[in-house]
Amino acid sequence: MEIDQPLELDVEAYAAGYTSHARTDRLLFISDKAGQTQLQLDALRLAAAELKKTENATRYLEVVERLNKRAPGCHPFDREWVDRVCQRSAQRHAQLESELAGYRTNLIKESIRMGYTDIGDQCYNTGDLANAFKYYSRSRDYCTTSKHIVNMCLSVIKVSIEQGNYVHVNNYVQKAEQTPDVQKDPVISGKLKCAAGLAALDNRKYKLAARKFTEANAEMGGQYSDVLSGQDVALYGGLCALASFDRSELKRCVIDNIQFREYLELYPAVREVVNDFYSSKYASCLMRLDRLAPLLQLDLHVHDHQAALLTAIRNKALIQYTVPFTSVDLRVMAAAFNTDVAGLEAELAGLIQVDQVAARIDSAAKVLIARHANQRRATFHWALQTAEDYLRDTRALLLRANLMQHDFMQRAPPGPSGRGGRQQMSPFGDHMMLRGAA
Amino acid sequence: MTLQQLVNSIQHLSGTEADLSTLLAKLKAQESSLRQSQAALINCLRALDPVQHSLGYLYLLDATGSEGLPVHASEEFIGLAVGFLQTCSTVQIRMAPDKFVSVSRKLKEHLLVLHQPRRAVLPLRTALYKLAPSSDYVTPIHAEFLQVCTLAKCYNSAVPILQADISDVDPAKTAMTPRDLMLYCYYGGLIHIGRKSYAQALDLLLQGLTAPTMVVNAITLAAYKKYALVSLIHQGNLPPLPKYMPTTLQRSLKTECQAYQEFAAGYGVKSNDELQAFVTAKQAQFAEDGNGGLVRLALEAKTKRSIQRLTQTYLTLSLADIAQAANLRDAGQAELYVLRMIDAGDVHAQIDASQGMVRFLEDPEEYNSAAVVARLATTIDKSIHLAQKLQAVNNMVSCDKAYLNKLHVKERHSRYEDTSDMSDPMAEGRLSLA
User: Fold this and answer.
1) Which chain regions cross the lipid bilayer (chain B) (predicted)?
2) Count of the separate structural domains present in chain B
3) Are residues B186 and B229 in the same domain?
């Protein structure tokens, strides 16, 4: 088994998987997380070079500033380019605005839609996400064909994902999926599935996310690279599936899923993890996951969920391991999980206490023994308990109703003292001497 | 009317019901003059027979009762009252329940001055049986009786009284007041706590807490404090109080019982040491409320509960591990705890002392004995009985004129406007029944 060093991240190859904003966003995210390493420097340098190809001058300024702080002089600041870009985009914006105004007076629906979309694109390119969202969603009223609607939705989804506004993502995915013909286009439906998957992931609904990612069509491939790459689909889908699917679901939706398998082929590390898990090689599966962990830490979407997902997968593995047996030798199990007996015992105890594992630990012999719920006993217990609750509640109810009937209400005595809280302590009277009697 | 004349009319008018009503009117008229001639009354009492002339005897006895209180006790009064409570005629004393309650209360006060509450237990028990028309009723003597039982630590003699399901307060028949009901619930709760039947204690205290009230009084606050601690001991948490709690009380609990609410909030989450530190900081307050013992029990219950959780997880576990998991000092202390819990039936386990291991067993109750069948049968009987009672009350309410009027008015209102007027507690209580 070739278990070697933690996986190294090749920034250039990684960045090549993405286009447009996704590339710079991810590079900058890596530079945020990487600390003072060569990796950070590489990421920043690539991001600067990438940004110079776009019209996003503001972002470029930020990156160059950071780059110069980190390693002065390695990237010359191109003042001339910035000025030129700013001027050009301002001109273009003004031109588009005036064109749009023209279309609006002439009331040509299709032209208005295109005008809004063009301004949206322009804002998006210059990095003004809020305005891009505004213009894209305005074009909605002027959409005439389902193709227009889907395009509008995809644009809005893209912007919303970048803004991290997943409520909008969900809304527009639903809208797009309701338009006719969308299911027939594998690329578009794949994109929508991935977007929905990202939204579910952000919402910590891992099962839903897993389902969405594994449903993504193979034909989409890398065509959604301005949001995520094919590797990402494999990574997110694989992890979420391991964390939330049971064995039969895993087999049906992941292992036997030809479409998803193509994504897994793009990311061999994840493929191996999934296969190991399914063939119950938990030690190597968990070890591979540990090696993946630093990479997950650098991922834009999954970094927040890394700990939760890995714990869930580990617990799932522990649970699955115990299910088929009536008794398990903890020493063997510890070896299978590459851990020590004491640690395993504590982990299992935790799982038993939250009712995930139906078993009890024989701590003297270091054996885990399955426990079968006694339905009959539970039913008797439950019936008696319910009867007692009923009797008690009904009695209390009858007495309360009787109190109401006799208007049995303690009222403040009339007088200047009014309805204060503390002044009404006197009713205890001689009974106060009882304090401490119990 | 002189005393002698009064005694004469008592002697003559203690026969038929009509005579007794006349007598009652006369006695009521003479009440204030009776109180002024206390000394002579004792002699008059000798001329009367407590069984035949119970009503008159009652009034005279009550008038003599307050003598000397609250400093001196009168053995003479105690003797007369004890004899009277044991022998008096049930029919006659039910004509003047307030006086009867007053005599019982005075007897208790005299004995409390002497610090001999135990002597009051039996007479008061007889008295409350005489006053209550049936075991459904609760009387003010219930509260007095439970108080002396608590003071005399005769918890067991109170059990039959507490086991009767009370469902009726009728001030006309028993001279009951809201305060008496709260005291009944409070002292009943104390007795249940003393007998360690925490579930019943919780029910009774909650009954007291939810009794309708416009003002906050010391009884309810004290009851709430006990309630909070007992729920921690019994269930490990403090459940939110029901919605039908009086709102005035809800508001003041936060300010008046802050230490208890903080203790309850921290009980489930804080570690033993943190809780102990909290308790030490608030020690004075808990002690002043007389709840130091309950707080200590609550802390112990936390340890017990963590040991009980272990039984769900482990089949065998060494004492040292138990001590560590339950945050105890050492294996010896853990052994002591487990031993005590096995005795109390809280856990089912065996201790292997030679190896220092504990083997946890499953609950041996298989629900296949005759006792279980009998228990099921009685529970079903009780449920049916109670359901019938509920149905009867329901029928009574649906025929109630005031209720129907109210309903009619509301229906007419709601035809024009949607806001329903639920301010009347009468209607609300009845609606919840229906």
Assistant:
1) none
2) 4
3) yes
| Mutation target vs A (from B142, B215, B294; most A CBs, 10 A cutoff) | B215
Q: Is B113 near chain A, with CB under 8 Å?
A: no
Nearest to A363 among B290, B314, B376 (CB): B314
Which neighbouring-strand residues pair with A369? A327, A360
Residue B28 tokens read as 């009521």
What's the complex ipTM? 0.82
User: In the Cβ-directed half-sphere of A200, how many Cα atoms lie within 13 Å?
Assistant: 21
Q: Phi, psi at residue A359, to the nearest 5°?
A: -165, 170
Domain that holds residue B248: 177-303
Calculate mean pLDDT across residues A214-219. Answer: 84
| B399, two tokens | 């025929």
Query: What's the rounded Cα separation, in Å, for the pair B67 and B73?
Result: 8
Encode pLDDT of B80-136 as tens digits: 889 999 888 888 888 889 889 999 999 998 898 888 899 999 999 999 899 988 888
User: Residues A376, A379, A381, A384: is their CA dihedral positive or negative?
Assistant: negative
Q: Does B326 touch chain A (CB under 8 A)?
A: no
At B186 the three-state DSSP class reads helix
Out of A362, A395, A432, the one facing B167 most closely (by C-beta) is A395
Say which residue, A70 or B263, is predicted with more confidence: B263
**Structure tokens that stand for B61 in this block:** 């006895």
Instruction: Please report, in angstroms and rounded to a whole number, the separation of the first and last CA atoms in chain B.
Output: 54
Q: Do B430 and A401 touch (CB under 8 A)?
A: yes
> How do residues A410-422 score in pLDDT, each as one tens digit?
777 665 443 433 4
Q: Are B241 and B252 in contact (CB under 8 A)?
A: no
The encoded tokens of residue B405 equal 């009027």
Q: Which residues of B58-69 are buried (b: 16+ CB within 10 A; e: fewer)?
A: bbbbbbbbbbee
Percent of chain A at pLDDT > 90 equals 5
CA distance linking residue A58 with residue A129, whole number of Å: 12
Distance, in Å, from the CA atom of A404 to the CA atom of B212, rounded to the nearest integer, reads 8
User: What does the CA dihedral B12, B15, B21, B23 come to, rounded to 10 degrees?
Assistant: 20
Check CB contact under 8 Å for B169 and A408: yes
Q: Do A376 and B167 touch (CB under 8 A)?
A: no
Residue A343 class from Cβ within 10 Å (0-12 exposed, 13-18 middle, 19+ buried)?
exposed
Final residue before a domain boundary, out of B110, B132, B154: B132
**CB–CB of A431 and B147 under 8 A?**
yes
CA angle B210, B211, B212 (to 5 degrees): 105
CATH fold of the domain at A325-397: Arc Repressor Mutant, subunit A (1.10.10)
> Is A401 in CB contact (< 8 Å) with chain B?
yes
> Would you call B335 helix, strand, or coil by DSSP?
helix
A436 pLDDT above the threshold of 60: no
